[in-house]
Each structure stands twice: as structure tokens, then as C-alpha cells.
Amino acid sequence: MQPVFAQDLVTRSNISRALVIAAHPDDIDFGAAATVSALTAAGVDVSYCLVTSGDAGGFELDHSREAMVARREQEQRDAAGVVGVSEVRYLKYLDGYVEPSHDLISELVAVMRQVQPDVVITQHPQRNWDRLQASHPDHIAVGEATVRAVYPAVENPFAYPSLEHLPAFRIGQLWMMGAPADLVNLRVDVTEHVERKLDALHKHNSQHPDPQAMDDRVRSAVEANHPDAERAAEVFHLVAVNDETTFAGF
Question: Any transmembrane segments, and where (predicted)?
């Protein structure tokens, strides 16, 4: 499929608010920061929700778990600011131990009902055998929990009794990062936002012992996603949850 511009997606699907959910700080920046930058530039209000604070990450060994949590949370806030995002939430699950439990699903439902996004962007719940690093177990668990929250829980007012004070609503679309190649059906042209993506990634300096190598690899990846060698794209598996193609939950 041909890449599309974020502004066209915003206009076509009437997107005013988006919520991005990921397992660890820097996951969003690797998977979708250029798209987020393009969305915020188009006037979309974007919020982040990180399920863990990345307490098991980092190549430096001379730190406590508490120090790494504080550092990585701040790195993500700084990276979010680069691409126009000011709201970053942390659910504080333990890095490496995430499961698609009802506790997590209900917390995600609560966040969705509070933010009321038109689009939810998250990680793919299906393992990508072509690039296993995209399929960290926490990524898969967060993707599965998010999908279950998006449908049917967030739109069922009786799904979680403790959340009945938050109004149920319907989400329009789900975009999933790190999808297996055969499921990719959305390419977002991010040519004008690649440098911001790299700037955001550089905020995660606890994670990158070789920033130049990271830059080269990320730049090559986004350029490979676009059929025009002079341009760049980020890719997703888009699922229509509630739009003109769906009816009564089917």
C-alpha cells in the first residue's frame, strides 16, 4: 500500500485525540515517534501511557532499580516533549513480568475512558518472527491487554464494576506497532519528522551505548518502509474498531 500523510488520516477519520500505550520507555519512540510528531503537528492531542517504567533496562550496571525508574521516566517525558506530547502516565508494572491480566486491562480501560481517544496506538500482540526484538514478552502482553480493553471492555459500561463511574465510549481505530510484515496495512509518510524521532530517541541515553549506530539503523529502517528511496515511513497494522465499516460490534 502507498504511504499516507498524517494530516490525511486525521481528516479522513476525524481524529482529534490519540492515546499511545506501550510496555517500556523508548518503545513508543522506536515504533511511532515520527508518526506522533506528525499527528501533533496536524493538531491531534496525543497522550502516552507506559505500563512499566523500564526498571530492568539500561546497559549501565552501577545503579539501583529506583534510580533507573526515575531516570527512565524522565527520559520518556523529555522524549515525549520533543514530539509534542505533554501527558505521560505510568502504571508502574514490573519490567519483564507484564501479563494481560484483568488488573491491567481494567487500568487501561480507565485510562482510555479518561482520555477518550479516537485512535489507540499500541504494540502488536502477535509475535514477529522476522524481528524478534519487536516481540519482547512485555510488548506482546501489553498489546493483548490493550486490544481486550479497546474491545469490548471500554465500550461496555458493565465490563468492570469499579469503573462504572467512568462513561463507556467507542474507539474508532487501533494502530499496532511491530506488526508481522503480512499484517502491515498502514504506512504513514514521516519524512519530515525523522529528525524529531531521532531527537526523541536520543533522550533515552541510558539505553544507547552507541547513538550513531542507533541513528543509522533507525534511519535505514524508516527509509526501507517507503517505496520512494528519498522518503521515510512508519508502519502499522490498522484495525477498524468502530467506523462506517463496522456494525453492532461485528
Answer: none
Helix axes 27-41, 65-82, angle to 10 degrees: 30
Q: What percentage of the chain's residues is helix, strand, coil (to nearest 5)?
A: 45, 20, 40
Contacts for 189-192: CB closer than 8 Å, 24+ residues apart:
189/3, 189/4, 189/5, 189/6, 189/38, 189/226, 189/231, 189/232, 189/233, 190/6, 190/34, 190/35, 190/37, 190/38, 190/222, 190/232, 190/233, 190/234, 191/226, 191/230, 191/231, 191/232, 191/233, 192/38
Round the average pLDDT of the chain to a whole number and report it: 94
Cα 43 versus chain centre, distance: 18
Domain count, the chain: 1
What is the spatial distance between Cα 119 and Cα 121, in angstroms, rounded to a whole number?
Answer: 6
Using CA atoms, how far residue 156 sits from 98, 100, 109, 214, 244, in Å, is 24, 18, 10, 42, 20
- 130: helix, coil or strand? coil
CATH code of 74's domain? 3.40.50.10320
pTM (predicted TM-score): 0.95
Note down the domain range covering 98.
4-240
Is 247 contained in some domain? no
- Residues 57-102 have pLDDT tens digits of 765 655 678 888 999 999 999 999 999 999 999 999 999 999 999 9
Instruction: Report the first-to-last Cα separation within the chain, whole angstroms.
Output: 25
Domain annotation covers residue 158: yes
